[in-house]
Design goal:
The complex is a heterodimer of chains A (220) and B (487).
Chain A: H1 2-15, H2 18-30, H3 35-56, H4 61-84, E1 94-99, H5 107-118, E2 122-125, H6 132-142, E3 146-150, H7 157-169, E4 177-181, H8 187-192, E5 197-198, H9 202-212
Parallel strand pairs in A: 1-2, 1-3, 3-4, 4-5
Helix pairs in contact in A: 1-2, 1-3, 1-4, 2-4, 3-4, 4-5, 5-9, 6-7
Chain B: H1 10-25, E1 29-31, H2 34-43, E2 46-48, E3 53-55, H3 58-67, E4 72-75, E5 81-85, E6 91-94, E7 100-103, E8 108-110, H4 114-126, E9 133-134, H5 147-156, E10 163-165, H6 170-184, H7 187-192, E11 196-200, E12 207-208, H8 210-221, E13 226-230, E14 233-234, H9 242-263, E15 269-273, E16 276-277, H10 290-305, E17 311-313, H11 324-340, E18 344-348, E19 350-351, E20 356-357, H12 359-377, H13 388-394, H14 404-413, H15 426-431, H16 437-450, H17 459-474
Helix pairs in contact in B: 1-9, 2-9, 3-9, 5-6, 6-17, 8-9, 9-10, 10-11, 11-12, 12-16
Classes of the chains: A alpha/beta (220), B alpha/beta (487).
C-alpha cells in the first residue's frame, strides 16, 4: 500500500503533476511513511529520472522545471514534519548562487538553483545584480561548499573574477568551490579566472558540483 | 488562418488561362501517340494525323476540367488515407529518380546500388516529416530497361507510406501496375484505395511523347492517379518571361487533363510540374533559382483556380555537395511551396539539379519541412485568453518556464528540431566535436535507420513480387536479380 503510494509519487514528480504530488505526500504521511523515506524513495528518485530524461534529450526544460515544482510542493508538506521529528534531510552541500553585479539575467541562474535543490543541496539564491561583497558575506555566513556565479554578458563576466579575488582577500577561497556559468562563459574562462569549474547547463552544474566535492568520480 | 502566398493577381490568372486555351488551338499540341490522337479526334479536337498535331477547343478542356476530381486520397499500405490531394493541404516526398547518390564518406557522387535504395526508403519511412515515398534512386546494378520497375519492386518490400513513382517505358508501366496490384491484393483494391501516383511528363514545348502519353492513358483507365509534370524551361524551351512560361505550363497540363479524362472520365489527375528558369551562364536548369520557384507558385495558383490537386518539384538544390547553398535553396523552395499550398512537394534530399540524392540532405531537409509545416499551422488562440490569464497569475514574475501552460503547449507552439540543428552553447558544440550540420546529419542517418521496423509481409507475397520482377529482368538479359536482404 505505502510502496504503491511512493511509486505514484515518484511518477507525479516525474511528470510534474504537482497537485497529485501534494495529495500523495499527505497520503503517504497518513499511511505512516517516514518523511525521509518519502524524500529518498520518491522525490530524489523522481528528480533523478527527470534529470536522466533531460540529459538523454527526451525531456525539455519545462518538463524538468515542472518536476522540480512538484517536488517542491511535496517538500513544503514534508519540511514541517521533519522539524517536528527533529530530523534533517541529508545535505549534499550548501550552495550560494547568484547573477553577478551589473547583470540582471535570471532564468539560467534560477534553473541551476532549482536543480541543486532538487538534488538535495541547500541553496541560497541571492538573485540578480548581486554585489561582490554580498557573495563574500553569504559564503562566510553560510559556510557554503559551492558558490555559483552567473554572468550572461561579456561586460559582466569579468565580475566573476572580481568575486573570486574578493574571496581570496577575505581568506575564504580555500573553503569554497567556485563554479561559473552563462552564455559567454566557457571552461577556458573558468581556468583563466581561477574558478573550480564551468558547466554548460543546470544538470551538468549539479554533476560538476558533486565531482568537485568528491561525491562522485570525475570520470562519470 | 493558414498562412498563404499568392503570386498572381486574379486578372493575370485569367489572362494565363485565356492564352493557354488559345495555344491549344494554335499552334495546338503535338501528340506522338496514336491512341491519344484518336481519343482527341473522337472528343472533338481538330487532329492532323500526319503531323500528329491536335487543336483542342476550349469546350473540350472545360468538359475535362469538369469531370476531373478536385480531390482524392492517397492511402498508405495499411489502408489509411494519409495524403489528401486537393485544397491547400501540403505534403512532402523525396525528389525522385536520381541517377547518382552522394556518398558522404568519399564526398563523391556514385551510381546507386540495390542496398542504397533499400536504405533510402527505410530512412524515408522513419522520418516523420515526410508524408510519402518516392522511387528516389535508379539502381545501377540492374539493366536500365527495368530501372523504373525495379525500384518500385524494392520499395514495395519495405514501405508503408504511399509512393510517388513513374515509368520509363510503355511496357514496364504494366509490370509496375502488376507489382502494385500484387502488393495491395487486387485491381479493385488498387483503384479504390490508390497507394501510388505516377508522374507523366510532357516535353516542352507542347509535346506528348508516345511513352508518357500511353502511361497517362493507362493510368486513367486503371484509375491510378497520374501527376502531370510539365517542365517549361524559361528562356530555352519556353518564353523567358515567367508569366509566359506559366502559360505554356497551363497549356501542356490542360491537354494532359483532356487526354486523361477522354480515356476515363473522373480518373484522378494532378496539376504538377518541374519548370525551371534557364541559367544563362552555364546553360543548366537551376532548381534553386528564385525564378524557378516563382513559376512553380504561379502554376500551382493556376491549377487551384481550376480546382485541381497540385504538385511541384521544390526544395532541391543545384549544389554538388551538402553545403550552405544546399541548405539555402532547399529552405527557400520548401517554405514557398508550403505557403503556396501545393499538395505534393517533391524534392527532399535532391541535389545537383534533379540528378543526385543524399541521405544527409534528406535528413536536413526533413527539418526544413518540419519548420514549414509549423509555419502552415499558423498562430492560433490556444486558450480562452491569449495572455491575460497567465500573465495576471504570474504578475511580474518571469516564471513561465515552470508554469503548466508552458509544458502544455511548447511542443505545439514551437517546432522542435532534431539534434541535427545545433542550438547549444559554443562550449557544448566544441565538446561534442565541433561538427557541421552535415556531419551531424550523417550520424543521424545511422541512428534513424536503427529505428526502421521491417514489414511483416507474407513470404508468398515477397516471392511473387520477386517473380514478377525477375521475369521482367530476364527480358533484358538479367537471369537473376541482385540479392535482397529483407531486414
Amino acid at each position: 500500500m505505502s510502496d504503491d503510494l511512493l511509486v505514484q509519487l515518484t511518477q507525479a514528480v516525474l511528470v510534474g503533476d504537482f497537485a497529485s504530488a501534494a495529495a500523495l505526500t499527505k497520503d503517504a504521511l497518513a499511511a505512516g511513511v517516514e518523511p525521509l523515506t518519502v524524500i529518498d524513495r520518491s522525490l530524489v528518485a523522481g528528480m533523478d529520472q527527470a534529470g536522466e530524461k533531460f540529459s538523454s534529450g527526451e525531456y525539455f526544460l519545462p518538463n524538468l522545471l515542472i518536476a522540480a515544482r512538484a517536488m517542491q510542493e511535496s517538500m513544503d508538506i514534508l519540511e514541517p514534519e521533519l522539524l517536528s521529528r527533529d530530523e534533517q534531510m541529508a545535505n549534499e552541500g550548501t550552495v550560494v548562487i547568484g547573477t553577478v553585479h551589473g547583470d540582471i539575467h535570471e532564468i539560467g541562474k534560477s534553473l541551476v538553483g532549482t536543480m541543486f535543490t532538487a538534488n538535495g543541496f541547500k541553496v541560497h539564491d541571492l538573485g540578480v545584480d548581486v554585489p561582490v561583497e554580498t557573495f563574500v558575506a553569504c559564503v562566510r555566513d553560510t559556510g557554503a561548499d559551492i558558490l555559483g556565479l552567473s554572468a550572461l554578458l561579456t561586460t559582466t563576466m569579468v565580475v566573476q573574477r572580481e568575486v573570486i579575488e574578493a574571496l581570496s582577500e577575505a581568506g575564504l577561497r580555500e573553503s569554497v568551490k567556485v563554479l561559473v556559468g552563462g552564455a559567454p562563459v566557457n571552461a577556458a574562462w573558468a581556468r583563466e579566472i581561477g574558478a573550480d569549474g564551468y558547466a554548460a547547463d543546470a544538470v551538468a552544474a549539479v554533476r560538476l558540483a558533486q565531482q568537485v566535492l568528491g561525491r562522485i568520480s570525475s570520470s562519470t | 488562418m493558414r498562412p498563404q502566398f499568392k503570386i498572381l493577381s486574379d486578372d493575370l490568372v485569367q489572362r494565363i488561362l485565356e492564352e493557354a486555351h488559345a495555344l491549344l488551338l494554335d499552334p495546338g499540341v503535338r501528340v506522338h501517340n496514336q491512341e491519344a490522337l484518336e481519343l482527341l479526334a473522337e472528343g472533338g479536337a481538330q487532329v492532323d494525323f500526319e503531323s500528329q498535331i491536335a487543336a483542342i477547343p476550349q469546350e473540350m478542356v472545360q468538359a475535362a476540367l469538369d469531370s476531373a476530381p478536385s480531390a482524392f486520397e492517397l492511402y498508405n499500405f495499411d489502408g489509411q488515407a494519409t495524403v489528401h490531394y486537393g485544397g491547400d493541404e501540403v505534403h512532402f516526398d523525396p525528389g525522385s529518380a536520381a541517377i547518382n547518390l552522394f556518398d558522404h564518406e568519399t564526398q563523391e557522387q556514385r551510381p546507386p546500388l540495390t542496398q542504397d535504395f533499400v536504405r533510402f526508403v527505410q530512412l524515408v519511412e522513419v522520418l516523420p516529416q515526410l508524408d510519402a515515398q518516392s522511387t528516389a534512386l535508379i539502381c545501377a546494378d540492374v539493366p536500365e530497361e527495368i530501372g523504373d520497375l525495379y525500384r518500385l519492386y524494392l520499395a514495395l518490400n519495405f514501405i508503408r507510406k504511399p509512393i510517388v513513382t513513374g515509368a520509363f517505358r510503355k511496357d514496364t508501366w504494366w509490370t509496375m501496375r502488376e507489382l502494385l496490384v500484387t502488393r495491395v491484393g487486387g485491381e479493385k483494391q488498387l483503384a479504390q484505395k490508390p497507394v501510388a501516383v505516377f508522374d507523366v511528363c510532357p516535353s516542352p514545348p507542347l509535346l506528348w511523347s508516345d511513352l508518357t502519353c500511353q502511361n497517362l492513358i493507362d493510368c486513367a483507365r486503371s484509375s491510378i492517379p497520374a501527376e502531370l509534370v510539365s517542365m517549361p524551361l524559361a528562356g530555352a524551351t519556353a518564353p523567358v518571361t515567367l508569366a509566359g512560361a506559366v502559360v505554356q505550363h497551363a497549356a501542356e497540363c490542360m491537354s494532359g487533363v483532356v487526354i486523361c479524362q477522354l480515356a476515363n472520365p473522373g480518373a484522378p489527375i494532378v496539376w504538377g510540374g518541374s519548370p525551371a528558369v534557364f541559367d544563362m551562364r552555364s546553360g543548366t536548369t537551376p532548381m534553386g533559382a528564385m525564378g524557378t520557384w516563382m513559376i512553380d507558385c504561379a502554376y500551382s495558383q493556376v491549377g487551384k483556380s481550376l480546382d485541381l490537386p497540385t504538385h511541384a518539384y521544390l526544395g532541391m538544390t543545384d549544389s554538388k555537395i551538402v553545403d550552405a547553398q544546399a541548405g539555402m535553396e532547399a529552405a527557400g523552395g520548401t517554405i514557398l511551396a508550403a505557403l503556396a499550398g501545393i499538395n505534393m512537394v517533391s524534392g527532399a534530399g535532391m541535389m545537383d539539379f534533379e540528378s543526385c540524392q543524399s541521405f544527409e540532405k534528406l535528413v536536413l531537409d526533413a527539418e526544413i519541412i518540419g519548420m514549414a509545416k509549423r509555419l502552415l499551422a499558423g498562430i492560433t488562440a490556444r486558450e480562452e485568453t491569449l495572455a491575460l490569464s497567465v500573465m495576471r497569475e504570474l504578475g511580474h514574475r518571469a516564471d513561465y518556464l515552470s508554469h503548466p501552460q508552458t509544458l502544455r503547449w511548447f511542443k505545439e507552439e514551437f517546432y522542435i528540431p532534431s539534434p541535427v540543428i545545433d542550438r547549444g552553447s559554443l562550449d557544448a558544440w566544441q565538446r561534442a566535436g565541433k561538427s557541421s550540420a552535415t556531419q551531424r546529419a550523417a550520424a543521424r542517418v545511422e541512428d534513424l535507420l536503427q529505428g526502421y521496423e521491417p514489414l511483416a509481409l507474407p513470404e508468398e507475397m515477397r516471392t511473387e513480387l520477386r517473380r514478377i520482377t525477375t521475369k521482367a529482368a530476364q527480358g533484358f538479359g538479367m537471369s537473376e536479380l541482385p540479392a535482397l536482404e529483407i531486414i
